[in-house]
Design a protein that fits this description.
Length: 326
């Protein structure tokens, strides 16, 4: 309860700063990040524990410094988002290599244009959705509902940049229609998943990971891409990597540990291999800038086979909801 009250207070401060220019908002955001880390210690134990476990070769001082940088980074990005759609648009001018990214994305997506883009809580994923919309790609973004008032704020932000929101309980039909119409489907799918998941290695430890993006790509016969937007100094740099959904490289899967999946079917074997491939791409991006990953989320939960998470509702199939996190 205290954590929620603090989050609302920090959100209010960031929103008040939202009318300021981008540099001023970032200064306010850094201050909020220091407050959350130093004074309030919001999930500080979780952040430092997960960083230390993911980088076992690093000492305590490096872990502590990376955690501080993480709080400052997300304080800045949060304050940037607080300005709303109109002012967020100014940040899009700071994206480097936008023309090259667009050319590579359109070439990779092919003549139809439809593709599944799996992203992560890295850098600034909300700005990435707005960036895709700014390129005229009309993305559909799958996102679960947040607690008030964040759901209203984020929904307004996404709508202000022509990012069409699809809720998991709407099913897969809106996504397949969008793909058929040549639109990209964006899923931020790196958090702990309770349905349609496999237990894959992530930063050296098993973690339940959604198979939804890979399943959707394979079933709809469209390319699967790993992409995102990370900070590069005062600017942003887009990431893009095509994921092979045909070959079956080592995905780091722990035996046949899959949940809500028919392990006897070649489709799910391919989905597990492809999911492992984009997880490896995410790992490379995290290692390049570990302070830009959202370590606040308790990513490694229920990792023991005998404690595998139970599915909710109907049985998950290759074309069921892409992901549902908790």
């Amino acid at each position: 309860m205290l954590e929620g009250a603090l989050a609302r207070a920090l959100g209010g401060l960031a929103w008040l700063a939202g009318t300021a220019p981008v540099p001023a908002r970032r200064r306010v955001g850094r201050g909020l990040g220091r407050l959350a880390h130093d004074a309030a210690a919001v999930r500080r134990d979780t952040v430092e524990r997960q960083i230390a476990a993911s980088f076992p070769g690093r000492d305590a001082a490096w872990v502590s410094d990376t955690a501080r940088r993480c709080y400052r980074h997300f304080g800045e990005e949060f304050a940037l988002l607080a300005g709303g759609p109109r002012r967020l648009g100014r940040a899009l001018d700071r994206v480097c290599d936008a023309a090259r990214f667009e050319a590579e994305l359109r070439e990779t997506a092919g003549p139809g244009g439809g593709c599944v883009i799996v992203s992560a809580h890295l850098g600034n994923w909300e700005l990435f959705g707005a960036f895709l919309a700014g390129l005229g790609l009309r993305p559909l973004a799958v996102a679960r509902r947040q607690r008030p008032p964040w759901d209203t704020v984020l929904t307004s932000l996404r709508a202000g940049h022509d990012v069409e929101l699809v809720r998991p309980d709407q099913g897969v039909a809106p996504l397949t229609r969008g793909l058929t119409a040549g639109r990209p489907v964006l899923l931020v799918a790196d958090q702990h998943s309770t349905t349609g998941s496999a237990r894959l290695e992530f930063l050296g430890r098993p973690a339940w990971t959604s198979l939804g993006p890979a399943r959707l790509s394979i079933a709809a016969r469209v390319p699967l891409l790993f992409a995102g937007l990370v900070r590069d100094g005062d600017d942003y740099r887009p990431l893009l990597e095509r994921i092979d959904t045909g070959a079956a490289p080592d995905a780091g899967v722990d035996g046949d540990s899959a949940h809500g999946a028919d392990m006897g079917g070649t489709g799910d074997k391919g989905a597990i291999a492809a999911t492992g491939s984009w997880v490896r791409a995410l790992e490379r991006a995290i290692r390049a800038a570990p302070w830009q990953y959202f370590w606040f989320h308790r990513r490694w939960k229920d990792i023991h086979p005998e404690r595998r998470p139970r599915p909710r509702g109907r049985k998950t199939t290759a074309m069921s909801e892409p992901a549902r996190t908790r």
